[in-house]
Design a protein that fits this description.
383 residues, alpha/beta, Rossmann fold, 2 domains, seven-stranded parallel beta sheet, globular, binds uridine-diphosphate-N-acetylglucosamine, binds uridine-5'-diphosphate
């Protein structure tokens, strides 16, 4: 029998854990593959990391690099040094990276320079906005990867336009949606709606959910204030809950914008909280609570990449607080609307959606729960 194929599966940040979940589980089904989870430590808080491993029934990472936060250069540099040591020791046959975070590009670059084959899951997405750190990460990773697994046909076209040979590109679908479909039922057990007082006597009231973490929105105090004012205006019509990313929590504190939100660092919440503060900020939620929360929302406002996709599948209206998206399929086929970061535009569109909703046109092709299966099958044939 041939030797087993050793695969380092890299994850560093919250969305990565959700994406590797289905890939890891499919690889594990095939005896020829020996997947090893490498957690870079880019995200490290319990509610940004451990909780996802626990809820998604993933084993503890085999290797933990403990990189932590820093400037782009610092963080990427540290993770390259640490990952190079791991590659030298483990001598993997393949390194799989997912998404577009610093851990993605750093580890892909190390592997490529060591002549180890690289697979990029979620290749080919483009916002065409190079001021966005993720866009740099996507372009660089795609140009050094050997296997490029895409979520939609637009991504294939982007890659072909950039001269990536056809034989490296595989349209396999969306692994984040694999995880959503796998855990959707389980998420219904979450008590978050009752905790937040959105569900009473088995009735669910109208509410909106917000997430924000893009540097373009939350690192600039003027933009952040403008968005928070817009959210306050929306909160006058419908309660708004805001599970806050640590970057955003820190910036709200730094820019002394605390008065624009009511931040409760712990759930369960005190009674009557909604009457006093219809814009309620809470710590980041675990996957199952968050999935349940967005599944029943009247409206989601976000600058997240993954949440644009999840709301498309859940048929929940999504207002994306950005001027561009690398996921145009969620607008063409899903429930996503781009609203930018202008206060009036956000409020006006939110009010319209609260009145009328938005219609989803269709489920994007291959967002069907079997993307990781397709990826595994291709790797089995090609390696
Ligand atoms: C990163 C990714 C972004 C992705 C997001 C998902 C890059 C360049 N950015 O952004 O593409 O959409 O993750 O959530 O890779 N922090 C904590 N605890 C943590 C993690 C972070 O307090 O567990 C704080 C630190 O102050 C840190 C800041 O958040 O400096 C930003 O973290 P970082 O990983 O650099 O970027 P994100 O904004 O999380
Ligand atoms: N998510 C979560 N808890 C939260 C906010 C988001 O579990 O409080 C999940 C969400 O369902 C999605 C992923 O985290 O699967 C998106 O991560 P994030 O927005 O941090 O990153 P992006 O997708 O923008 O890279």
């Amino acid at each position: 029998m041939k030797n087993r194929i050793k695969i380092l599966l890299v994850a560093g940040a919250r969305p990565n854990f959700i994406k590797i979940s289905s890939v890891y589980k499919e690889l594990k089904k095939i005896h020829r593959f020996r997947p090893i989870i490498v957690h870079t430590g880019q995200h490290y808080d319990v509610d940004m990391s451990d909780i996802f491993f626990r809820q998604l029934q993933l084993p503890k990472p085999d290797i933990f690099l403990g990189i932590g936060s820093g400037t782009h250069g610092e963080q990427t540099g540290k993770l390259m040094i640490a990952f190079e040591r791991i590659c030298a020791k483990e001598n993997p046959d393949l390194v799989i990276v997912v998404g577009d975070v610093n851990s993605t590009v750093g580890c892909a670059l190390v592997a490529a320079k060591m002549n180890t084959r690289v697979a990029h899951v979620e290749a080919g997405m483009r916002s065409f906005d190079r001021t966005m750190p993720e866009e740099i990460n996507r372009v660089l990773t795609d140009h050094i990867a050997d296997f490029l697994f895409t979520t939609c046909e637009d991504a294939n076209s982007n890659l072909r336009r950039e001269g990536i040979p056809k034989h490296k590109i595989f349209f396999t679908g969306n692994v984040m949606i694999d995880t959503l479909l796998q855990y959707r039922k389980c998420a219904q057990q979450s008590k978050i709606l009752t905790t937040l007082q959105f569900k009473k006597n088995n009735k669910i009231q109208k509410y909106a959910v917000v997430t924000l973490h893009r540097p373009s929105n939350v690192d600039d105090p003027v933009t952040l204030r403008r968005i928070l004012y817009a959210l306050n205006a929306i909160a006058k019509k419908v309660p708004v809950v805001f599970p806050m990313h640590p970057r955003t929590i820190k910036n709200i504190e730094r820019y002394k914008l605390g008065r624009t939100v009511h931040y409760i660092s712990k759930v369960p919440l005190p009674q009557l909280v909604w009457k006093e503060s219809p814009l309620l900020a809470i710590p980041p939620l675990g996957y199952l609570d968050f999935l349940n929360l967005i599944s029943h929302a009247t409206l989601v406002l976000t600058d997240s990449g993954g949440i644009q996709e999840e709301t498309t599948i859940l048929r929940i209206p999504c207002l994306t607080i950005r001027s561009n998206t690398e996921r145009p399929i969620t607008i063409k086929e899903g429930t996503n609307l781009l609203v930018g970061s202008d206060r009036d535009q956000i409020v006006k569109t939110a009010f319209k959606v609260l009145r009328q909703g938005v219609v989803r046109k269709r489920r994007p092709r291959y967002w069907d729960g079997r993307a990781a299966q397709r990826i595994t099958k291709i790797l089995l044939e090609k390696l």
